[in-house]
Amino acid sequence: MKLLSGKEVSQHVYNLLTDRIETLKKKNIIPGLAVVLVGEDPASKVYVRSKAKRFASLNLFSETLVLPETTSEGELLDLIKRLNKDSKYHGILVQLPLPSHINTDHILDEILPEKDVDGFHPVNLGKLAQGRPQFVACTPKGIMRILDYYDIDLSGKSVVIIGRSNIVGRPMSLLTSLKTQGANATTTICHSGTKNIPEITKMADVIIAAIGVPELIDESYIKEGAIVIDVGMNRVDSPERERGYKLVGDVNQKSIENKVAAITPVPGGVGPMTIAMLVENTVEAAERLSKII
Ligand SMILES: NC(=O)c1ccc[n+]([C@@H]2O[C@H](COP(=O)([O-])OP(=O)(O)OC[C@H]3O[C@@H](n4cnc5c(N)ncnc54)[C@H](OP(=O)(O)O)[C@@H]3O)[C@@H](O)[C@H]2O)c1
Q1: Which of 2, 11, 120, 246 could potentially form a cystine with 238 if both were Cys, beta carbons 3.0 to 4.6 Å apart?
Q2: Which ligand 1 atom lies nearest to the CA of residue 269?
Q3: Domains of the chain in sequence order
Q4: Does the beta carbon of 236 sit less than 6 angstroms from any atom of ligand 1?
């Protein structure tokens, strides 16, 4: 079984970005990202911190704007409007989930599509659906990059995605089925309304699990020699660890390791690629907004 290391691929992405970042710096442009965090969700705080750390390590600019849980939808919309106008931010990211009194769609719709480095704005998702992607959601984009790095061509293959969120499953289904190099797959989406998922996934050459249920996918879902992309990042209790939890995927990796051809580990698989694609999208936003490309 081959481990598809997102950590390794992300390093490759950062190496490739160095020249582009240098070109921007010569024109006094530092790619900048505004990260908006509302509330105290512990997992969100960890994600936001690791994004900020990565930007700092590449000498890029990022600023995290932390707002209290009680922030109103109107206040958050006003902040987004301000960030849209502020030229030091080429990208704007609103960390999800938002508190339940705020309508996430209203907030994401307000971000300028040109600064929507998460690729969640309907204009960007719509462009992807039409086969003319601009900003593509970081996690699905990162998965395509892992497949490309390891020479896994999806053309003609059967891909089954479990999960249909706008963040992962839906854009993943669009990307894998595009008539483009490395994609061109026959894609099926499963979700909580799908009957007998193992019957469907057992036909798949590539399974992409983006469910949010710890270790749901075991050997009964997989055909011999399949490639498995485990998107899941689930915190499960682990009292023996200092922090009290561990991260596991949506796949029971132990149970399938002798059956699959390749798998992305958790951690170190899809996670690092999500951040790498955020950096790449922010660099691209800076290039576009400053008319370099
Ligand atoms: N590695 C990364 O960088 C990264 C990035 C984003 C997300 N993630 C992880 O990926 C996972 C999915 O994230 P998400 O944002 O897409 O989650 P989400 O919005 O909760 O969507 C989950 C999807 O899975 C489906 N589902 C839930 N339970 C199911 C079941 N028992 N059988 C079949 N389908 C089921 C849901 O169906 P319905 O549509 O019917 O509800 C939904 O479409 C989470 O573990 C998340 O932490 C990781």
Answers
A1: 246
A2: 1
A3: 28-112 (3.40.50.10860), 138-271 (3.40.50.720)
A4: no
